[in-house]
Each structure stands twice: as C-alpha cells, then as structure tokens.
Specification:
Shape: globular
Helix content: 40-55%
Strand content: 5-15%
Radius of gyration: 20 Å
Strand order of the largest sheet: 3-2-1-4-5-7-6
Largest sheet: 7 strands, mixed
C-alpha cells in the first residue's frame, strides 16, 4: 500500500542539509548514449547529486551543463570535483577523491581551496574528516554500504569475495554464483539491508519510499542476483563499490576514466550550478538527466513537474531518467508533445551496469515533423 498524497514537495519532507550521496549511483555510460544525439554544442540540464554524471556529460562536448540540486551540500560535492579536475593530475585526482590510497588529502585540499566559492569553502572547511576519507565515500549512502560490507566480510570472507570479482565466462560465472555465493546468509543479509526500515533510515531517507509499495526489497534483491550470476562483475564500477567499498583501476565510472580526464578538465568551466528544484532551472535545454526524481512524487506532482520540464525542452530534446521502486513514465497528458523512445530505453537498460534500477526511460520532445 502506498502512502496518501502529500501536498508538500520532497524538499519539505526530507532533509537536504547533509551529503546523501558521495558518489552517483546511475550509469553515466547509458545516460551519455541516450543524450549523445542532442548534446554537442547544446545546453544540458542535470541533477547534480555528487557531480559524477554532470561531469560525465562533458564528454559529449555540450555548450553548458546546468547542474541543479535541492541540496547545497551536493552542489559543494560537484564544486570540489571541478576544483580537483582543474588543479590535479589524473593520478592525484584519483587519490584525492578516494579511489586510490592517499594519506595527504588534507594537504592537497589546502592547494585546492582557492578554487572554491566562499559557500563551498565554508562547507568543506567544516568537513575535513570527509576530505581525509575521500569525497567519493562521503555520503550517507556510502556510510550504509560500509556497514553492509562489514557484514559481507562475515558472510563470505575476503578470499571468496576476491574470487567473485575475477573475470569469468558466462557459464563459470553462473556456476560460481549459484554453487558458492548464493548462500542463506547472503540472502538474509540482502533481505535485511534492502528493507524499507534499514535502507530508509541508514542509507537514504524514509520519505524517498513514500510512494513505493510495501515490498521494496524483493526487486533490488532479485536484480542483484541476476547481475552477479549473469553479468561480468570485475569491470563493473557499481558492483565493485557495492561489494568492496571502492572502485578499481579497470572498473571506474565514466567521469573517472583516464581517457576522459583531459576533456573534462578542459570543459569543466562549462558546468554551472543551480540551487533549487530542477524544474525551476532557467532557460531551455536539449537534454535532461533527471536521475530518479519522479518516484519521490505522487502522480499529480509528477505530472506537474514533468510538464514544467517539457516546457523547457527544445524540439527534439531528450529527457533521460531512472525508476527504482516506483514506475513513473511519461505522464499521459504529455503524449501529444513527448514521445517515449521505448525500444532505445529497453536496449540501454539492458546494458545498465547499476543493477538496482527497475527501468530506464528516454523520452523525446516532438518536432514539427513527428
């Protein structure tokens, strides 16, 4: 049973004064494939979150990426990443953000402070323990995953976990998962960890589940089972982090890959920040990265927010977004001016490296010829 409609927006129902996400948990590769046909030389609107995917969109050579968020803390995460890209070498960037070991992060931060706005500087000067940890590990969700990984070490141990992440063929991968990994302690761990009560309080926010069904556990658990049994895990950054607590050199999200470093550095000044609801961001756009914002709304709020975003969409613009617990596709009222690219959406979702999401949507603003 879903909750009764609540006229308050999500920013009125949940707190946004903390870092919820130290990393972005949506696959930038399929996002960039979705928006590539419309992105070059254009303005893109993106949910900021920790900044990973706003920066990844720079690989498409847009004119501008406007990164919007309800949280000043999340915008500060984006700003710190931009400063790191502008001021550090590639190897130093990985060390500073927390991908690789680095005992000197606080010293590196001192050299980056001059690149931060007064607001971001005040924020990070009060979060030096987070800087020392590594910014990619800074969020409430990543803290939850550290607890999860502690239990996982008890369930499977280091040797078995390393074996899971070794490259394997399809048949060997499935056999290892079903014969060795899929034990009752593993299944119990996930039933508890992905429950509304534990994940809502320790990893996300109870309000993020307001419009979900009572069962928020079985879907992600089933999709994780399928990912580990059927997909290569050794090069998957999201599975790597989920199971080990960090990325690896051969399993990095798009914005942290060496081949994109110089392009993102050169284009980093094209990122602009906007504090407030994404539908209030100024201007018109050719592409939209909307994360999974729609499932935090009831149907009426979803329809109104989608309408406002479609108003900002240029002819032919694409809107990309995920659904995790609540299916929120294009509202019926927008059928006349927005078309669902269903075949593309399904094809990209089949390649989504983050196992958690139930669907990925790519919609397109109609042109006069459509």
């Amino acid at each position: 049973m879903t909750a009764a409609p609540d006229p308050r927006s999500i920013q009125q129902r949940a707190s946004f004064d903390l870092i919820r996400y130290g990393s972005v948990w949506e696959d930038a590769d399929i996002l960039c494939q979705a928006l590539k046909p419309v992105a070059a030389g254009a303005r893109l609107l993106s949910i900021a979150s920790a900044g990973d995917n706003a920066l990844a969109l720079l690989t498409l050579d847009p004119k501008e990426v406007l990164a919007a968020d309800l949280s000043a803390a999340q915008l500060a995460c984006l700003e710190l990443r931009i400063a790191a890209f502008q001021g550090l070498s590639y190897e130093a960037l990985l060390g500073f953000l927390g991908v690789s070991p680095d005992a000197g992060r606080l010293d590196v931060y001192q050299g980056l402070r001059k690149r931060l706005s007064p607001e971001a500087l005040a924020f990070w000067d009060g979060k030096l323990e987070v800087i020392a940890l590594g910014a990619i590990h800074a969020g409430k969700l990543e803290g939850f995953l550290r607890r999860y990984q502690g239990f996982l070490r008890w369930v499977h141990g280091a040797e078995r976990s390393r074996a899971l992440l070794l490259p394997k063929g399809r048949a060997a991968r499935a056999e290892f998962y079903h014969r060795t990994w899929n034990t009752w302690p593993w299944r119990t761990l996930n039933r508890l960890a992905f429950s509304r009560r534990i994940l809502g309080r320790l990893g996300r926010d109870p309000e993020f589940f307001r419009h979900a069904s009572e069962d928020v556990t079985s879907g992600p658990t089933r999709r994780l089972d399928q990912a580990l049994a059927q997909r290569p895990s050794h090069a998957n950054p999201y599975l790597r982090y989920h199971l080990t607590g960090s990325y690896a050199s051969g399993a990095l999200p798009r914005y942290l890959r060496r081949e994109h470093f110089l392009a993102i550095r050169r284009r980093s000044s094209r990122v602009r920040r906007f504090l407030g609801p994404v539908e209030q961001a100024p201007g018109d756009f050719a592409g939209f990265n909307l994360s999974n914002i729609f499932e935090y709304m009831d149907e009426g709020q979803h329809a109104l927010t989608y309408q406002k975003l479609a108003d900002k969409a240029l002819p032919g613009a694409r809107l990309a977004y995920w659904n995790l617990h609540v299916e929120r596709p294009r509202p019926p009222a927008e059928r006349a001016r927005v078309v669902e690219l269903a075949r593309l959406s399904k094809s990209l979702h089949a390649r989504d490296q983050n196992w958690a999401y139930r669907s990925f949507h790519v919609d397109q603003r109609r042109t006069r010829n459509q």
